[in-house]
């Protein structure tokens, strides 16, 4: 089943609802259910993003009485592409990819002539090519949600809790929840953003139906419930995910020499939302070859079509969006992904338009909430 991003009912709108609560400007609609809870004026608001926790694995691995499942207020969508680089930056900026410029794991930066792995600041196809200047800071910087909140609520303290791939990060989700409990003991108002990289990583390695995925999700559920049992009545917990995942099979693009010969540079963005820059006068040929090989599993958009479709959102267009996008973007509508590099493998992946990738939970909890 294909599901498109709903920019009235998405992770973008979670952020816009929070910004509206703190009187920060946003052009994007609020989610009524979250707005209603925020109007109760909790002293402490905690937004927790569990990477890859789509509704599909909640439904598979938790029963309706388990904490996370029991407090799903509604199903919302991710953005497009539903992938960590694009989606987490949407949450942190309050902007869709159309405006933030964050599209996926690999983006082509014209001035540096590199297919950059955005989060690692190195060339995706040549790992030895690492840039001294952080290119995402140079070209994709935006006011963070914390900055926007502080601008209109200078007395509200803001915090971000990340895993230990960042300086001063945390080794476990349990450690993050313990820090949250410290933060909410303050007398001042606080807003805290928590990001944890599971259950995304375990699904990539083992698949969505695996025992490993079930065990990780159930542990996260237990630790989330333990946090909920310890918060005070001045705290609102909001849990979301950036995207879901689906089990995948791979087509190795490097084996398709007739198609590769039509490209003027290597593919980019994501394996299930794949960006192609085509040689001059070869677009018609490329479309024919692609459709013959992959048309049953991918929807092929031209650059103009994907921008006009609204898949990337709306608002002020990022000045580099046109240079990031190639002549075509192939979007997965089935179980297949397109491998850029030979030998890369995932049991499950994301960035396509299937229900499992697009549908994520909005979970809300406070001590007086009706259950």
Characterize the structure shown.
The chain is an alpha/beta fold and about 375 residues long. It folds into two domains: about 10-100 and about 140-245 and about 355-365, Alkaline Phosphatase, subunit A; about 245-350, Gyrase A, domain 2, CATH 3.30.1360.180. Helices cover about 35% and strands about 20% of the residues. The protein is built from 16 helices and 17 strands. The chain has helices at about 10-20, 30-40, 55-60, 65-70, 85-95, 95-100, 135-140, 145-150, 175-185, 200-205, 210-230, 255-260, 285-295, 305-310, 320-325, 355-360, and strands at about 45-50, 70-75, 105-110, 115, 120-125, 155-160, 190-195, 235-240, 245, 250, 270, 275, 300, 330, 335-340, 350, 360-365. The strands form five sheets. A six-stranded mixed sheet has the order 2-17-8-1-7-6, with helices on both faces. Helix 1 (about 10-20) runs parallel beside helix 2 (about 30-40), helix 1 (about 10-20) packs parallel to helix 5 (about 85-95) and helix 3 packs across helix 11 (about 210-230). The longest helix has 20 residues, at about 210-230. It is globular and about 65 Å long. The two termini are about 30 Å apart. The model has no long low-confidence stretch (mean pLDDT about 95). Keywords: Coiled coil. This is Alkaline phosphatase family protein. One of its GO terms (molecular function) is hydrolase activity.
């Amino acid at each position: 089943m294909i599901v498109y991003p709903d920019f009235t009912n998405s992770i973008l709108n979670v952020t816009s609802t929070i910004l509206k609560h703190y009187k920060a400007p946003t052009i994007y609609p609020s989610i009524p259910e979250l707005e209603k809870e925020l109007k109760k004026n909790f002293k402490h608001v905690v937004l927790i993003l569990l990477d890859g926790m789509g509704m599909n694995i909640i439904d598979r691995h938790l029963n309706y009485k388990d904490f996370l499942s029991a407090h799903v207020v509604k199903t919302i969508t991710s953005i497009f592409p539903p992938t960590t680089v694009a989606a987490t930056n949407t949450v942190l900026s309050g902007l869709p990819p159309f405006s933030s410029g964050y599209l996926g794991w690999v983006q082509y930066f014209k001035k540096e002539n590199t297919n950059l792995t955005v989060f690692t600041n190195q060339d995706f196809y040549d790992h030895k090519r690492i840039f001294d200047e952080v290119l995402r800071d140079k070209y994709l910087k935006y006011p963070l949600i914390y900055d926007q909140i502080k601008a209109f609520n200078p007395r509200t303290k803001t915090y971000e809790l990340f895993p230990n791939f960042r300086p001063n990060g945390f080794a476990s989700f349990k450690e993050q929840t313990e820090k949250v409990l410290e933060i909410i003991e303050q007398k001042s108002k606080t807003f805290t953003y928590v990001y944890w990289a599971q259950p995304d990583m375990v699904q990539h390695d083992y698949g969505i139906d695996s025992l490993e995925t079930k065990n990780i999700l159930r542990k996260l559920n237990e630790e989330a419930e333990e946090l909920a049992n310890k918060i005070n009545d001045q705290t609102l917990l909001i849990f979301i995910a950036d995207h879901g995942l689906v089990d995948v099979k791979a087509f190795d693009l490097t084996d398709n020499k007739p198609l590769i010969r039509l490209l003027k540079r290597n593919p980019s963005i994501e394996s299930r939302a794949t960006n192609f820059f085509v040689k001059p006068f070869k677009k018609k040929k490329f479309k024919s070859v692609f459709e013959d090989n992959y048309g049953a599993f991918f929807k092929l958009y031209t650059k103009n079509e994907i921008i006009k479709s609204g898949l990337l959102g709306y608002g002020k267009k990022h000045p580099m969006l046109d240079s990031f996008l190639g002549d075509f973007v192939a979007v997965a509508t089935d179980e297949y992904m397109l491998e850029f590099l030979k030998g890369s493998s995932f049991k499950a992946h994301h960035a396509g338009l299937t229900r499992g990738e697009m549908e994520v939970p909005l979970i809300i909890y406070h001590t007086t909430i009706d259950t």
